[in-house]
Design a protein that fits this description.
- By secondary structure, the chain is an alpha/beta fold.
- The chain folds into two domains: 134 residues, Rossmann fold, CATH 3.40.50.1000; 78 residues, DNA polymerase, domain 1 (Orthogonal Bundle), CATH 1.10.150.
- Helix content is 47%, strand content 12%.
- The chain is built from nine helices and six strands.
- It has a six-stranded parallel sheet, sandwiched between helices.
- Helix 1 crosses helix 4 and helix 2 runs antiparallel to helix 3.
- Its EC number is 3.-.-.-.
- This is HAD-hydrolase YfnB.
């Protein structure tokens, strides 16, 4: 019997693409640069490459930020003070709260029936600030983010730590998230049921999830 819900944050609660684009635009303004879609596409490409290397253990998070600064400075052909581009981008991202359609209605519905916890990779202070600023924090019993947990999804230790702290077993929990690798496979490996938020209606061959929805409102039919 489900007693508690784990919910991912980026691209499940907040629209990360919109938040990231807004932060990128504000960062460019600080350097007196005009926003172009191709610039944002390049920035996303750099992020994808660097964060993939970080997850593989090839570089650490500090090196991600240093290399991102260097590559963006080279791309725009400007001299960027060490760490400045990254610091500005992260600073603006702290306050970005573009919500995914239907999330507040879903949280209101779930809060009457279950305990609700975030289960997110990222920076705790950033995620906590965004939840408070959006006034969504009132729906959560606890905020769990990887840098405080000490492990990242899909590591089984991430989910085990949450179970240890909440005193709920895997049978008591269900995970809602948009990432097959982090949320769905992570939950499956910990024997936790899952709801895959497939908002782009991707064709998935390996059905590691328990349920699948395209819109958050569909979750009300499941829980």
């Amino acid at each position: 019997m489900i007693k508690a819900v784990l919910i991912d944050i980026d691209d499940t609660i907040f629209d990360f693409e919109k938040c990231s684009k807004n932060s990128f635009l504000k960062t460019l303004e600080k350097f007196n640069l005009k926003f172009k879609e191709e610039d944002f596409s390049y920035f996303n490409k750099v992020n994808d490459i660097l964060w993939t290397k970080q997850k593989l253990g090839e570089i650490n998070i500090k090196e991600v930020f240093i290399k991102r600064d260097y590559l963006m400075g080279k791309y725009f052909n400007i001299d960027i003070e060490k760490g400045l581009f990254n610091d500005l981008f992260v600073k603006f991202l702290y306050d970005e709260i573009e919500m995914v359609d239907g999330i507040e209605d879903l949280l209101l519905y779930l809060s009457d029936k279950y305990k609700i916890f975030t289960a997110s990779n990222g920076i705790f202070k950033m995620q906590e600030n965004r939840l408070k600023k959006s006034n969504l924090d009132k729906y959560f019993d606890k905020i769990f983010v990887s840098d405080k947990i000490g492990y990242e999804k899909p590591d089984k230790k991430f989910f085990q730590k949450i179970m240890d702290l909440t005193k709920f077993s895997n049978d008591d929990l269900i995970m809602i998230g948009d990432s097959i690798k982090s949320d769905i496979i992570g939950a499956k490996n910990s024997k936790i049921k899952s709801i895959y938020f497939n908002k782009e209606d991707k064709k998935i061959s390996d059905k590691n999830f328990t349920y699948q929805v395209k819109n958050l409102s569909e979750i009300k039919k499941i829980l």
